[in-house]
Structures are given as structure tokens and as C-alpha cells.
């Protein structure tokens, strides 16, 4: 597999330094990509870079994932209007371990293959580097004129930000440049991968390598991912879409991809899956024939949820997605876990009732008017039941005099009431 050719048809290349292709064709090459450890989980904004590393390893080359423990303590000014919070070492170490577990789902770290991936943390080579040594050995090699010419610096100094730029942030490109130099020396790393906003920092590294050891190194960037409507990729109303199920459940993760637009689905399936060009072309053709079936979104959601979580989690998310439409919905509801149940019915009107009311086996009409006012009156409740328009846990209620009992409780504490086709209510038994 030709790495650049693969990334090109997938729409994953923004800029490539001349000579990169020739270098890759000489044989196995080592490349690194930096990951910011500001949280103990990656989010889907990181996935483009991670997929670059994955394709790089698939092409027979050796990937290095660099966790920016040192640079994470500074904060990259690129595309940022203000400085970020600085992290302490225990937090950074915790985040590094969590990130490695997530990366292991994409990269082979453990085999004895010559191109097995490695994880490094730049804090390990920066922590004992004194300030005087750094400005003497690194700072003297790059001129202020060179650093000021970078877009990330110019934008912050041009008045777009009210805060200006601290010396800490100004020095960021030197620290990132030194990372490349160190990996070049220690691992014969000749290529840096990253987002297009990183180009200035990345080329500082190649310049350091040239001026320090007379070596030749290269950079390749991917475009920043956007949505077809111009909105920011990876952000929802509740914030980032995380890879860790503690922050974004597999169901919500699956739903994010399932609900992208047709135009975005065609773009994202190339970037975020390993499907071949032929498979994707076939899916695009199916989408054109019958957009309502959403074959692109379904396959995209399935592939990426399985890769990030597991096949089991993906199947559970797919099953939960059918709750509102499936004729097996009652069975599914009684089997799904509490977190997924709450995700599916997030935002619906919610009522709380006492467990004593369930134990007393109240009539449903009484519960749903007096205790949890799903209906304004018992007469309206009776009318809807007799008309066949009311369900509990997706099961039609035929008898207006039916009573409530423990068997109706999902996960021992929830009841889903449904009026008509689309009106849902969540009753929580305390």
C-alpha cells in the first residue's frame, strides 16, 4: 500500500513537503504524530491524526505516537485565541496511560513486527533540560524573524486576540521542533504528521534538524475536518464526542455518526474507516439510489463504533437505535442497560413516583393522572387506551383498569409511557 496515494484518495492530505514520497519509497520510514494529553480520553477531533498513523502502519511504516507531556504544560497557540490551563505531572501521566489504551485499538504496539508502534512522552526528555541549556543549544539555532513569520504567531500578535502572546507560548514551536530533532536522533524519525494548523511548528522541526545535524526531514499535514454546513466537526450541544464511554456512551457515539449529513457521511467514511475505495463507491451508489435508507451513515457508524468500542457495544447501540421503531422494542427495552436507556430517552418529560405506589399496585389510570401527570384526566387516559393509542414500555395497554406492578419496571426503576406514535414520558420509581 502506498501511504500518500492512500491518503490522497481518502481526502486526508493538505500539504506535503517535497521529497516526502521519495523518502517513503526507500523502505520502512518512521513518522510521529503529537497528541495533546489535556484529558484522559481522546475525542473524535483526534481521530484524523490517529487514522493517519493507522494507515501509515498499514503501509508497512513505523508510527510513533507522541504524548505531549511537556508541550501540554505550555499550550499550543495555533488557532487559539487564549492560553490554556497548565497540567501537573501526575495528571499528565494518568492521561498518557489512558490515551495509550485507546490508541492500542488502532495501532499495533505489542507485536514483534519491525514496524510496531511506540508511545513516547516529550516530558521525559524535556524535564531535565535546564532553561539555560535550552536557549543555548536550541534557541540560538532559530531566529526570532523565522519564528515571527509563522501564521500562528502573526495572528496572535496582529490584534485578533486582546491578550497578546506570552513568551511561554512563543517558545512552543521551539519545544515542538526539538521533539522532532530528538526523535530523529533517537529513532531515526524522518517524518512528522499533523493537522494543517501545525505546519509552522512542524517545519521549525525540520529546520532544527537541518541546522543541528545536517539531516533531512519531512512534514505531511491533513486538512482540518469541517462539516458541510460550516459548523465545527465533533462538537455537539453537550460538548465533545469522546472515545471513552464514561464521557460519551457507545449509543451516543453511534448516534453521532448515524446522524451526519449525506455529504459529510461520504467524506467521513473515507477518513474514519479502513473500507476500500471499491466498498465506499458501492455504498455511495446505494445512497444515491435510496438516500432514505442511509447506507453510508449506517456503515460509517457501525465501522467506527466497533473500532473505538467493540462489536458487542456497537450491536447494543444499533439495537437501542431501533427502540422507537422496532416490533421487538419491548424485548430490547427489558435488556438494555440503564445508561443506554437514559440516553435513548434523554430530553423527554420525566416524572418521579414513590415505590410504595408500585407496591400498592395502583391502577395505571391513577398513577398516570395523580402521581405522574402524563394525562390531564382519567377520562382522557381511558379514551386513549380504548382507542389503542397508549403503551407502556412499547407494549399496548388494552385494559383501562390495568394495575402497575414490578414486572413493568425497566432496570428495576423506570417505566416508559407512550401516547400516540411520538409522545414519550419517562417515569422514575424512587
What does this molecule look like?
There is one protein chain. With 430 residues, the chain is α/β, with parallel strands linked by helices. It contains 21 helices and 13 strands. The protein has helices at residues 3-9, 20-25, 47-58, 89-103, 123-126, 131-137, 144-148, 151-157, 167-170, 172-187, 199-213, 250-258, 262-271, 277-289, 295-308, 311-321, 329-335, 338-344, 355-359, 364-371, 378-386; strands at 15-16, 30-35, 62-67, 118-121, 189-195, 218-222, 235-236, 239-240, 350-353, 390-392, 395-396, 414-419, 423-429. The chain has a 6-stranded mixed β-sheet, with helices on both faces. α13 runs antiparallel to α14 (277-289) and α15 packs across α16 (311-321). The longest helix has 16 residues, at 172-187.
Give the topology.
Elements: H1 3-9, E1 15-16, H2 20-25, E2 30-35, H3 47-58, E3 62-67, H4 89-103, E4 118-121, H5 123-126, H6 131-137, H7 144-148, H8 151-157, H9 167-170, H10 172-187, E5 189-195, H11 199-213, E6 218-222, E7 235-236, E8 239-240, H12 250-258, H13 262-271, H14 277-289, H15 295-308, H16 311-321, H17 329-335, H18 338-344, E9 350-353, H19 355-359, H20 364-371, H21 378-386, E10 390-392, E11 395-396, E12 414-419, E13 423-429
Parallel strand pairs: 2-3, 2-5, 3-4, 5-6, 9-13
Antiparallel strand pairs: 1-6, 7-8, 10-11, 10-12, 12-13
